[in-house]
Each structure stands twice: as C-alpha cells, then as structure tokens.
C-alpha cells in the first residue's frame, strides 16, 4: 500500500495560511501548510504591513510549527523577509518544530543565518528558546 500523496509530490501545491499578530515591538507571523513559492507573497505582504503600521518593531518571529513542507523557494522567501528587516534593525527569528523545516535549512547551509527558536520534541530544555544565533552574512 502506497502512502497518500501530498501536494508537493502531486504537482499541486497546497496554499499556505499566513497569519500575523503584534505584541509591542515583537510580531509573530504564523505559517501553516507548505512553505513554497506560493507562500512568498502572503509572507512579504505580512512583513510589509508590519513595517508600515507605525509601531516600531525589534523582532519578527516566523512560527513555522505548522509547516509540513519547505523547499528552496520557501527558504528564499525567509531570506527575503530577513533582508527586508535588516535595514530597520528588525531581527527575524524562526520558530521550528519539525524536521520538515529544520532539515532543508541545515542541508542548504542557511540554518545559521537565522536565529532559531527550537521547539522540536527532544530538544534540550535550555535550547528550546533558541540559540542558534545567526552570524552576519552579506
């Protein structure tokens, strides 16, 4: 018996759901579904709206706990969000909960580009609120 096919192996990508909330100088953008090229526009729109709403931001957390699939286009969208915030001094952090997100980031070498909030089961308690701090990349 074959496992059920998902959107990324049938050629039909599932639309990602992107929601946003702000609490003071920190905002959270939550992504549920597949983080692919289809999610880029809603993510960029959410980040743009946050930066233009008049309240200064210090940090944006992309909560990828509900992401079931991440490809190179999704990684590029995350890098784009980071580049949008850098000139304004906005830190972009990724909250991860599964290997569907962590593995592609590690394999691409971009794991260390972001501040990671590691919420994976089995992560040491001390590391759960992250601290794979990013290093400066040009």
Written account of the structure:
This protein has 138 residues and is α/β, with parallel strands linked by helices. It has a domain of 92 residues: STAS domain (Transcription Regulator spoIIAA), CATH 3.30.750.24. Strands 1-2-3-4-5 form a five-stranded mixed beta sheet. Strand 3, helix 3 and strand 4 form a beta-alpha-beta unit. It is globular and about 35 Å long. The N terminus and C terminus are likely disordered.
**How much strand?**
25-35%
CATH class of the domain at 36-127: Alpha Beta
Helical fraction equals 25-40%
Shape: globular
Distance between the termini: 48 Å
Order of helices and strands: HEEHEHEHE
Rg: 15 Å
CATH architecture of the domain at 36-127: 2-Layer Sandwich
Q: Note the main sheet.
A: 5 strands, mixed
Structural class: alpha/beta
Report a brief summary of the structure.
The chain has 138 residues and is of the alpha/beta class.
């Amino acid at each position: 018996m074959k496992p059920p096919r998902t959107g990324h192996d049938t050629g039909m990508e599932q639309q990602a759901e992107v929601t946003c909330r702000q609490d003071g100088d920190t905002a959270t953008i939550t992504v549920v579904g597949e983080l692919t090229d289809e999610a880029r526009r809603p993510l960029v729109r959410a980040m743009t709206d946050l930066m233009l709403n008049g309240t200064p931001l210090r940090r944006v957390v992309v909560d990828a706990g509900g992401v079931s699939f991440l490809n190179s286009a999704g990684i590029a969208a995350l890098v784009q969000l980071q580049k949008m915030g850098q000139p304004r001094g906005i830190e972009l952090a990724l909250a991860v909960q599964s290997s569907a997100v962590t593995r592609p980031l590690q394999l691409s070498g971009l794991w260390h580009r972001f501040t990671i909030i590691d919420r994976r089961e089995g992560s040491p308690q001390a590391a759960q609120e992250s601290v794979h701090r990013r290093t400066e990349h040009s």
